[in-house]
Amino acid sequence: MTRDEMERALAELPFRLLRRLGRAIAGPLALRMGKRRLIHTIMAGAEANGARIEAAIRTHEAEERALAAGPGPAAPASAEHRVERPADLRALLEGIGVPEPRPFVPDDWQVEAVEALERGDVIVSVPTGSGKTYVAVEATRRAMHEDRTVVYTSPLKALSNTKYTEFCKIFGPELVGIITGDRRDNPAAPILIMTTEILRNLLYDAAGGEIDVRLDTLGLVIIDESQFLADPERGVVWEETIIFCPSQARLLLLSASIGNPQELAAWLSSIRPTPCHLVRHQHRSVPLRAGYLHPNGKLTPLFRTVAMPPSPSQAVLHPEAKRLFTMFEEDTLYTRRSG
Amino acid sequence: MPPSIHPVHLITVLRQKSLTPAIVFLTSRRSCDEALQAFEHAPDRLPPARQESITAVLDELTAIYPSLHDHPLRKIVTACGVAAHHAGHLPSWKIAIEELMRRGCLDAVFATTTLAAGVDFPARTVVLTQSGVRRDQDFTDLTIAEVAQISGRAGRRGKDSVGFAIVTPSPYMDLGILIRGLTGRPEPVDSQFIITYPMVLNLLKAHPLDHIQSILAKSFAQYQMNAQAVHLEHRIEKLHAKLESYKPRECSDWLTQWSAYDHATRQTAMKLQARRHHPPEVRARLPYLTPGRVVAFPRFRGIVLRRYRSRGQRHEMVTILRKGGVMAESPVADVMGVIDRTFDFAPAPAFPWATPEALAWLTQQLEDLPKHLPLLTVPPAPDEGEGELVKSLGDLFPCPTCPCRPTCGKEFKAANTMKQEWLHHTRTVQSLRTGIWHKFQERADILQDLGYLDPAFKLTADGEWARLIRIDFSLLLTELIRTQAFHAVTPATLAGLMACIAYENDRPASFPRITAALANLVATARRMAEALAPYDDPPLLRADVGGLAERWVGDTTVTWAQLCRSTSMAEGDIYRLLSRTLEYLSQVHSLQATHPDLATVAAEALSRIRRGVLEELP
Questions:
Q1: Contact check, Cβ <8 Å, B193/A158
Q2: pLDDT value of position A74
């Protein structure tokens, strides 16, 4: 291999291999070099390291050829622990579209949550979008039947407003009120939507002697997005609200999936008069699939399987996604370094 | 190849694979806006029927929210079926976009990752373009819970049989974080309980001081800390049992005894170490090498001017005056013999270590010395080894003569580590058990000093109204009210100051000028905040943002569009600033009973803020 040939072959090599070569020849300094300087450095050391450079180039070429040939005769070698073929794009996109319209039947966990509320407090920790609102609405309906008032709190004003509109549609605007930092509509209604801060203030007022009539008849407090308990700035408000919540009212904590719902449930059981029932599951009502979209427009599955891997340790990237992402990383690494 | 996929290309691909509607999560508001702008030049336009349906929905909403009427983004949203949704927009616009998404009129929405929690509408597909998110000034990795929140938006119940999370790479993206986020278990929720001043006042209003500890014990923070404490106590018990197993000993507290002995040994050893560098004969000579002593070197004689050791040097040195007034520095080891002759001279603190006269005299004396002088016989140095140390410690430490000593020596190290750990855990458990209560007491003491609580920890007259202010920086606000800082304040100035206190973002922007009255008030507030800094973190108190609220409240003829033009702040941020100001003002308004004048001003400010865009919206 002449010098010119070698230089051209080096330019073809992926940056990753070039760096490895450069590091072997010029030491850790090579890690900070751009592609052009790396090639220059490697060529400067070519006399002494000719064999090594050539070997690296040949190995890479052989790998390229093997890749181009596809999973050829090499595959059967691993026959005893045969791996399933990675999913393809067709499998990923299969079944896309609108499901058959089905009459609404509440899930078991939803029924369970509503019924458990008869006996005590309830924490619902389920993935986003699996129908926590159903539990809230159903629980509200039951409380209304018993002539109890209901308070629904959410962390954001925007969410409160959305819920207000939603509850107005279900229960009628005369039964629903909203109180936020800057809005007060129908504050004497039996169903009140508010931000958590407002409820905390109400509870303080009640404890301070300025008795708010509603708190005596308060039957249900729904705290949405209760994972906000861990918010560095506002988390304390959630805790205050839960601690000072009147004991005759039931608590319904709705939260996205969190890591330690049992701990929360145990805590509630320890401070509230009734035991706390925990409803949790990881099952999504609409299954999720993951894809990888390369900037050139190529779409592949992200994982080897179409279904989501159950844990990070079992997550195996789809070979194509892995190849494309590595390619992308090399490209951006290179532009960033020379730029 | 471009570093990341072009937004128009991205949406085209998603449309082709029928993956729309989609929510594309981008890092910043700017990238959302730029993505939307990219569609202006794209050839694709929606078919007329769909455009009409979007217009219909927007018209319907305009009836409720007039600010949608001539929104600049209306055209592009209608034409291309894509929109941006981020905190820079007015809530009405965000509501419109959400409604359009819910009705399935849009193909894609570009949203910021930061507000993933506030995005309350589902889609068939979510697109993840980043593994990090901007928080305050930093760029941090997405947590598993956040990725779960984002991917939770994928798949509409009843409308999709499958939801998709599509990852598309961009520079600096860490795929590992997204994979962990998509497949992992969310982080546990940990308590962020803190004691705030309003909390102290409100608790003491309702309960006597001796009930408070049991109330605070009900917090999740205490629950979690108790769990930790129990875990540690378990460990403490184990350590205790292990430490017990080292008994019995001669003395009751062998660890303390031995550690004192060990300490003394080490100290002495350190002192000895320096001298040990010299061989015994050199060491024996050391006491004789005093200034003025005549010493012999192999080839010359000289008078010692000083003895010293440079920092970091092992060997001691002497400065020698040689024949003819020459000065030499020499290691003490080179001194061959000590001669039985000394000269008294006046030393100097710096080179040449003697006064000039003394130096001249010494030089002369050196010349005059007889050729042969007897060497001093130096007695051998005493052995300063272990035995000597033990003898010198005497009765102070019984260990050296104790029969347990060899056992103690062997076991001391392991046992001491254990004991230290035990002590550490004991202290931790104590602070876990009582930390919150102590913090409460600390805050209560401060409030007592400031006069909100009387000596019996009951609310004073000031405390009674101060407990109604339940916002961040409540202490600053109540102190300002107490010092009459708001005397004869106008609604505009009051609103301006509330905006300054409420705004906690240091992003630079341009604002309308503030009036002298507001500038004075902000200066007063700053001084107050500084004085209160030991008790409460001071707010940012940017004077410039106050200008916005002041203008909006001060001049009721100012329209929303004019207000937006007077600043470089985004519409959504102005809205949020004003609505935060509203909250603060309504807290001031709650002081009707005790501060009627101020409450009236606040009420006036409140009614003036609520107009235009701020009135149309919930």
A1: no
A2: 43
- The nearest CA of chain A is from the CA of B472 a distance in Å of 10
List the Cα angle B230/B233/B239 in 5-degree steps.
Answer: 150
* Number of alpha carbons in the 13 Å side-chain half-sphere of residue B89: 29
CB distance A168 to A240 below 8 Å: no
Q: Does B591 contact A at CB distance below 8 Å?
A: no
**What per-residue confidence (pLDDT) applies to B383?**
58
Share of chain B above pLDDT 70, in %: 93
Q: End-to-end alpha-carbon separation of chain B, Å?
A: 46
Q: Is B402 on the interface with A (CB under 8 A)?
A: no
Distances (CA, A) of B260 to B124, B239, B263, B397, B410: 72, 22, 5, 8, 16
Describe chain A by its helix, strand, coil percentages, rounded to 5: 55, 15, 30
From CA B265, how far away is CA B243, in angstroms rounded? 24
Cα B331 to Cα B301, B328, B356, B400, B443: the distances in Å are 14, 10, 25, 37, 64
**Paired tokens of B85:** 């949704």
Burial class (CB in 10 A: 0-12, 13-18, 19+), A20: middle
Residue B268 identity (one-letter amino acid): T
CATH architecture of the domain with residue range B7-183: 3-Layer(aba) Sandwich (3.40)
Find out whether A1 and A9 touch, Cβ atoms under 8 Å.
yes
Token readout for B43 is 């050839």
Of residues A131, A158, A297, nearest to B118 (C-beta): A158
Alpha-carbon gap, residue B521 to B530, rounded angstroms: 14
Res B429: pLDDT: 95
Which residues of B, range 70-99, sit inside 8 Å of A by Cβ? 91, 94-95, 98
What chain B residue is nearest to A288 in terms of C-alpha separation?
A: B163
Residues 133-192 of B with CB under 8 A from A: 145, 148-149, 151-169, 171, 175, 179-180, 182-192
Beta bridge partners of B308: B317
Residues of chain A with pLDDT under 50: 72-82, 336-339
Task: Supply φ then ψ for residue B423, to 5 degrees.
Answer: -60, -45
Residue range B468-616 forms a domain whose CATH class is: mainly alpha
Rounded distance between C-alpha atoms, residue A91 and residue B80, angstroms: 30
Domain ranges of chain B: 7-183, 192-249+407-463, 273-403, 468-616
* Residue with token string 């001043």: B197
Three-state DSSP class for residue B344: coil
Tens of pLDDT, residues B590-611: 999 999 999 999 999 999 998 8
